[in-house]
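in:
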């Protein structure tokens, strides 16, 4: 759990409609990489813990016979259902509104459990142990995130870069200098170093894989606004009565950065850590 912060159900309030448009995609080839690493044959079961609007769940759905997404946000779960219907995979997708710490006991056993940049919001000791119990022998816990250590300049691309530093400055102007999260603040940021936690829970590993990104992306002003409102630290509810004023200021900042309303960006690489449960003992 984040030090000095308690989870509350406003963490991503109002962000669901912006998520699919605003968030950058996972690196091309992520599904193919996991299919090879996990030896998937289209018949297993996937659990996506903290699934949001189903971005990762639906990307991986073709690799499994059934996918189950769990998230505490009502709007996120509803959006996930809409996206599953749009992609014609609703027949193999189940959406459960629950906190990761309170996973329903009737979920059954899974081939793999994925955490797409969500594990840090949870009581990690408790969730790791619960997830371990839900995975079959040789099952995999997969932690997926953007690669944070790479440079993604826009040299050679046709439009200006997204002015992220200026955007964050504008958010601080409206919301204060300490990053917001739900009703609280993140004075020390979000935690890392899950190795000790997962080892204590009975997992072995991890095996690290990097799926290369770097693809050229074109982003509109509306895309960037959606990115801002999809983030926990700048979710729409945080601005209260100043939301419209903030959005107007944000759009003016973006207009000055790119009068044509177009931005260039390179897609991030995706970093994957695969942890395993013990294989079944021979008879």
């Amino acid at each position: 759990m984040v030090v000095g912060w308690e989870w509350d159900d406003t963490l991503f309030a109002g962000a669901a409609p912006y998520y699919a448009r605003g968030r950058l995609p996972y690196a091309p080839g992520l599904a193919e990489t996991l299919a090879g690493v996990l030896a998937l044959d289209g018949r297993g079961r996937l659990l996506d813990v903290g699934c949001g609007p189903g971005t990762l769940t639906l990307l991986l759905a073709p690799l499994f016979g059934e996918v189950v997404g769990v998230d505490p946000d009502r709007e996120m779960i509803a959006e996930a259902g809409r996206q599953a219907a749009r992609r014609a995979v609703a027949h193999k997708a189940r959406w459960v509104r629950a906190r990761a710490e309170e996973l329903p006991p009737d979920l059954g056993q899974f081939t793999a459990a994925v955490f797409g940049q969500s594990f840090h919001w949870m009581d990690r000791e408790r969730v790791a142990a619960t997830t371990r119990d839900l995975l079959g022998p040789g099952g995999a816990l997969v932690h997926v995130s953007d690669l944070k250590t790479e440079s993604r300049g826009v040299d050679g691309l046709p439009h200006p870069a997204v002015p992220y530093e200026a955007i964050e400055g504008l958010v601080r102007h409206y919301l204060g200098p300490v990053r917001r999260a739900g009703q609280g603040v993140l004075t020390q940021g979000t935690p890392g170093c899950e190795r000790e936690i997962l080892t204590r829970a009975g997992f072995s590993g991890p095996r690290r894989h990097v799926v290369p990104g770097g693809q050229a992306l074109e982003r509109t002003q509306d895309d960037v606004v959606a990115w801002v409102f999809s983030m926990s630290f700048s979710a729409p509810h945080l601005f209260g009565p100043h939301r419209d004023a903030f959005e107007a200021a944000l759009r003016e900042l973006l207009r000055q950065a790119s009068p044509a309303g177009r931005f260039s960006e390179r897609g991030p690489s995706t970093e994957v850590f695969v942890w395993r449960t013990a294989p079944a003992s021979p008879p």
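note: The first strand starts at residue 45 and ends at 49.
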